[in-house]
Amino acid sequence: MSELIDYKNLDGISENEIARLIEYHDKRYWELGEPEISDEEYDLLARQLEKLNPDHPLLLRLGSPSVAGTGKVRHKKPMLSLDKAYSLEELLEWAKKYVRNPDEEFIIQPKYDGISANFDGSVLATRGDGEEGENITDKIPLIELESAGYKGPLKRQARGEIVIRNDDFKTRYSSITKKDGNPYKNSRNAVAGIMGLKDIADMKRQNAKLTFVDYEMISEKVSFHEFRERWPAILENLENLPYPMDGLVVKLADEKYSESLGFTAHHPRGQIAFKFSGVRKTSTLLDVEWSFGKNCLTPVAELEPVEIGGITIRHATLHNAQNIKDKDIKIGDTITVERAGDVIPYVINAIPGETRKDALISICPCCKAELVFEKPELRCVNPECFETRVQRLLAAVRNIGIERLGEPNIRRMMTKLNVKTLRDIFELGFDDIVKLEGFKEKSANNLVSEIKNARKTTDFQLLASLNIQGIGKNLAKSILTEYTLDGLRKLDIEKLSSIDGVGPERAFAIEKELKDQSVFIDELLQCVELAQTKGSSEINLPTICFTGKMPEKRSYYEGIAKSRGYSPVDTVSSELSILVAADISSGSSKIEKARAFGVKLISLDEWLSSSGNTAAPVSPEKKNDDFMDLPLFFSGNSEG
Ligand SMILES: [Zn+2]
């Protein structure tokens, strides 16, 4: 595992870094066959990128392996993506919204784990961005079609997924090798690898075979009232099919009705994808490594290697020190590991081994200082701790927006140039940086000018760069909309905790850190040119906040709001212009707050219809295996 990132709070990370992470995880997923994060975490990265830059070119090709095509092909009918559910409860919640009576029927089909494609009878094309894919007709000699009542060369029209059957992967692919002489890790990795080849002669020679599964070939029907009861058996049936799958597709059986529900910019309402949950295996806990974060140490289990879902697992997360205590996990124990989808595997429980060694530590592995247990984490509070400093400085640099400066260079600066804080970085000149390993005149100049540019910053970036627990860029911005930085430094805990989104714990942290870092903040203020958030023109836009579970991703509505001249915010304050609620009667805390502040409250439907909702932004989509065939009954949309 290379990085432990809080995917729920990506606010400190720059656009370039998010894009780099997405590319990195695409590579791990498709090329290396060693994914490190879950589909959900990948989704969060994609949403953050969309939030930072809705026009980022990466958004159109999210989650697709690079395929060696011979040109672009425009789909006659677009290949849309499906909304996702990760549990039976979520699935039933979706179903409940659309059933007209208990006998409403649903069709359940496998969700294959490969590359989705369309064959129009002569041209085979990948899904691409849904509208336009890559021409991969030259790969047809390797592909066999499987559709209802037919198995053979790809000669008839179909929409489906290019996969390698499980049985083929086990037998045929045990002797097929890549250019470097190694076999493929798993079938998805093999499909991506082969589809990425410009020339398939070598694969033909090795007798490689891919299967194009028609989406309509396999399906089960179930009525709403027996859905829950029959679900386990359906899951088991479909899971036992000889194709790599990562979930199921559930759709309303009544096509006309489903069509009448229509679909939004990105998902048909009458269908949803259900993602499989994890697979568990047992292994032995060999050791625990502690990975440094900016505020705590995170335990990572080192395991006796174990194969889960075609991937060799050597590490699993143990989340935090409290988890190790709660589950009484010790080195030498037999542990159960789960890999849910492609999530970082995690330890479920432990059975005491014959010899047991404490998995917790009391001394910092870096600076040997006594560690502090602050539920649920272990923390090294030694201000001189090198590893903790690296992480804090890295987070600060990201928040202040110095893109080019990654962890290796921060380490070099700390060792070679005695850099300790952001302020030290601001004071570095060309002569310092050029001394660092790997820097030449040009790269040193680039970094110098980037650091110089970063000195022109905003008060909220500066606040976020102080590494106060729980204060990322978003919250910092919302706080500094209400108070200036100077004003904030004078507030007492009571006032601080009354700021929307702060609360007592964060208030305590803010008060303490602003005091502890007071001298440092003053020094830092000397080196920067600060733009104040409070009263700035961007902030003077009317603000809008959304609450409640909505049919689309939040970013979708925020995009509409921006196009209507609103500035979306996450929290309700007295200054909020409008709160849009999925359900006005839900009485959520945001709604109650809005009522108390006298903020305008409106339902989603009302808001959407209030001023010609036309400016729908493009939403990011992910794994191409989520992109499903757009069934015939949706014809008429974006034809040609
Ligand atoms: Zn330490």
Q: Quick summary of this structure?
A:
This protein is α+β, with helices and mostly antiparallel strands and 640 residues long. It is 33% helix and 22% strand.
Keywords:
single chain; 640 residues; alpha+beta; D-amino Acid Aminotransferase, Chain A, domain 1; OB fold (Dihydrolipoamide Acetyltransferase, E2P); 5 domains; 6-stranded mixed β-sheet; 23 helices; 28 strands; globular; binds zinc ion
Q: How would you describe the overall organization of this protein?
A:
The protein is α+β, with helices and mostly antiparallel strands. A hairpin with a 4-residue loop joins β4 (115-119) and β5. It is built from 23 helices and 28 strands. The chain has five domains: 15-61, no CATH class; 72-269, 2-Layer Sandwich (D-amino Acid Aminotransferase, Chain A, domain 1), CATH 3.30.470; 279-379, OB fold (Dihydrolipoamide Acetyltransferase, E2P), CATH 2.40.50.140; 386-454, DNA polymerase, domain 1 (Orthogonal Bundle), CATH 1.10.150.20; 543-610, Rossmann fold, CATH 3.40.50. The two termini are 44 Å apart. The strands form eight sheets. A six-stranded mixed β-sheet has the order 5-4-9-10-7-8. A five-stranded mixed β-sheet has the order 2-13-12-3-11. It has a five-stranded antiparallel β-sheet with strand order 16-15-14-18-19. α1 (15-31) packs antiparallel against α2 and α10 packs across α11. The protein is globular, with a radius of gyration of 27 Å. The model is unreliable at 612-640 (pLDDT under 50). Zinc ion binds at residues 364, 366-367, 369, 380, 382, 385, 388.
